[in-house]
Write the structure tokens for this entry.
Amino acid sequence: MPTDSAIRQMIKESDGDSYEAMRSLEQELTFACAEKEFARHGLELGQAQMKTLGMLTQENIFTNAAYLLSDQCTVSIKLATFAGSGRLEFQDRRECSGSLFAQLEKAYAYIDMHNKNRSSFQGLYRIDTRDYPEDALREALLNCCVHRDYAFSASTLVSIFEDRMEFVSVGGLVDGIALEDVLLGLSVCRNPKLAAIFYRLDLIEAYGTGLRKIMHAYDKSERKPQFQVTGNAFKIILPNTSSSAMAVDTVCENSAGASTLYSAMDKPEAAVMSMLEAQGTIVRSEVEQQLGISQASAIRLLKYMSDNGMIKRVGSGKATRYIK
């Protein structure tokens, strides 16, 4: 009897590489949660609509897009809360499974429960603010859901600390796309059918706007969101606007040398200075890797900073390094 992996390979060979377009291994699917979500927007979710949305093939076979929205979906979002800014003291944990619509609703409710209200006064008037901009939390969660690579079985992870929230989804950026491209608004969607359904239900806006909305939500905050990318994962780090400091050692870790760190809304110079503070000295290739930029862009950035006295160039040729 063939294994699930062998079955998936046979399906891939006949259906192509797109996970959401492939036939689901599970065909006994129900859609109570999805139907409720569609009805909320005055839309039907019958056989004809499912075919139009790519949930059902012309041969009436459910695709993985249907599976992700079905009540039987086993892909999950795992949430955990920690004391302080590290992972040493665990406090609470939840796991959300079922239809992606149900997962999003449960996960957001948990996150919102940990988004505390803070009060301050200006004269006679009280001003209430929350630790995290609600738009940023919503967009970060939706980004994990719409853009993750569902071909991997690992769960989406949400970690809540005293000074930040971290959202980690499986699958890096689509091949050929750099983080700086995404921050400029370029979007190549890994799951276009899923994104189209979410767009139709007003859960997301036009493609490529999510990260910019997150950055905009922190316009008036000293601390900015950060994005970290590897070949197999994408992390969004949202700082607590009420916290006195963000854990630098957590957001700058790069022990394997494979991560890309970009501080949104901050100038690239700030990222270079953070690297120097952590390492003492850097080379051009490290700047390329950390900021996810081209060799030419890294050369221009380092030349600009050295010309303006922000950093010092030491050595020449392949031995060139930069210090504060």
Q: What stands out?
A: Residues 166 and 198 are 23 Å apart (CA to CA). The radius of gyration is 22 Å. The longest strand covers residues 90-96. The first helix runs from residue 4 to 15.
